[in-house]
Amino acid sequence: MKKLNLFFLSFSQNVFSSLVLIIILSVALVSVQDILGQYRYITYSRYIIENDTLSNSDLFMIDMEMAMNASAQDPGMMYEVGKPIRKKILSFDGVEGIADSRNFSCGYISAETGKKTYPGAKIYTGQMQKAFAKQLTEGRWFEQADASSDKPCVVVCGSTFDNVSVGSDITITPDDYPGGSSGVKKTTVHVIGKVGYPWYAGSYGSISDDISTDFFLKQQECVIFADNEQTQELFEDDSDDLQLSYFVVYKDDCTDEQRNEVRNYIGTVGTYATHDTILENTNKKIQEELMNRIITPIFLLVIATIALISISTLNTYKKLKDHSVYYLCGCSRKKSFAYLFVEISIVTLIAVAVNIIYVTIIMNKLASGSLDYANCIVDYKNILFAVVYCLAAITVTTILPFIVYKKNTPLEVYRRNHND
Amino acid sequence: MIEISKLNKYYKVGKGKMHALKDIDLTVNDGESLAIQGKSGAGKSTLMHIIGLLDNYDSGSLKIDGQEVKGLSDGKLAKLRNEKIGFVMQDFSLLDHKTVIMNVMLPLFFNHKYSFSKMRKLALEALDRVGIKDQAEKKANQLSGGQRQRVAIARAIISSPQIILADEPTGALDSETSVEIMELLKELNANSGITLIVITHDDSVADYCERKIIIKDGSIIS
Q1: Interface contact flag, A330 B107, Cβ < 8 Å
Q2: Chain A partners of B81 at a C-beta cutoff of 8 Å?
């Protein structure tokens, strides 16, 4: 308490400048965190998409005009248009399969709380599992699953399943949705794998000319099933929810001729992007878009840090007389500098504390599912960044004041004032 | 008791050395009042800084209450200064932007002995003793020179020190106020048994002390 009083004794002289700096630093740090989160997301998505299965594939995107025209007559027709195209693609000799999924509604009853939520269900094709294999943070995919369980095997994704462990059984209600039918049947399924934080499952929500890897992930809660007979029995509803874009995976021994044949066809019913093009677009996006956007917050951060150094150094000069009085009253040089150090560091510490609170709130909201922080990964690594910045900033902002303090002994300051 | 024996102090001047204090031998008994006089640059302030543990010396010995101070760490010297010595300086050496009471409490912040409320109580008692208790909540820079020196004296006595070192305590005051301040210091010396060492070039100020020494060119000449 006494030391706190002594600290405020000095700090109260610099409240305004300190407040301004705290605000600038906080804004800069939050902005950097935002960009950092986006950078982490896009590089994570690149990591997921960069794999052997997809390197031998093309992304097919249906002609949206054609699909829209069909849906203008009948909304259900939009997906009907896709069915024959899909069938035709699969009929080509060079095509191994299609990496996509079908979506179903599904309920989940927590064994701990008995509470029911509606995470939804996805049925992954074999190619889809391979295409997004890296997402799995725990357990295994269906192909390597232990066949001893007679229950359907699932991979779970999302914060809802944080407390569910691999190897356990969970209760789901297929084809169930909020306010849905009362006759849903409870089914026990066996969890063989988990997609952990940041809970991104494969998705083909967007179609774009300059498509990059970040288009293929969506943060979501879902129960993932293998595309097999057991699953077909679970979900009665033969979903129309086919994707309008997906990866066409070629066979390993697919010839250039066969590949061109497929490309010629998909070029007539839509557009396609090669895996290399997608990666190129991604790298371009990282370099051009993110790098351009990070300039402003980095500039703010640098300006704030330089201002912090200047103010700390000026403040040290201003405080030399006060510290010579402390010395006279029995404060050692070490302790005296410690007080100065706390004064200098407090601005950075407060700004970093604000940042850590911000990151923690975002993380908690993400964990509780109350925030959809799209295309951004925010976790403890972001806090690590804030702490590293804090240590670096404190070190940098203390060096000059330390030199000033060291060069001006209390006796010299006293003599100078005495002569004045 | 302060015992100084064969004390020497040198200052670096360019490439050479200046011999600031030469073989100083001096004993100051407890409760004594001593005036150190001399012309500007004679070495009296240097001697005061050494006795006040603000500066070090090159050879010889300085003992306070029988304890040799040579070789003590910065922390131990600070503790000794905090507990045994009070300073009254010509320029008052106050935190101008802070209240009188905070200035007086300052030495107690560093000794870890008292709670904040006890510190306030002691500070008010010290201010009462120097006759400016009613100014406690004013900022130090709102006071007159005489009042500020009283604040410095209150701060000097708050830790109940054995020694008060006063460096030209009336140097920035008018003659009437100078008399008041010296009367106050003399009263503290007489009634509290505090050893008083006054650095001055003013004979009328030195006359308040029982003993006078004169320093010339770094040596005690009388």
Answers
A1: yes
A2: 328-330
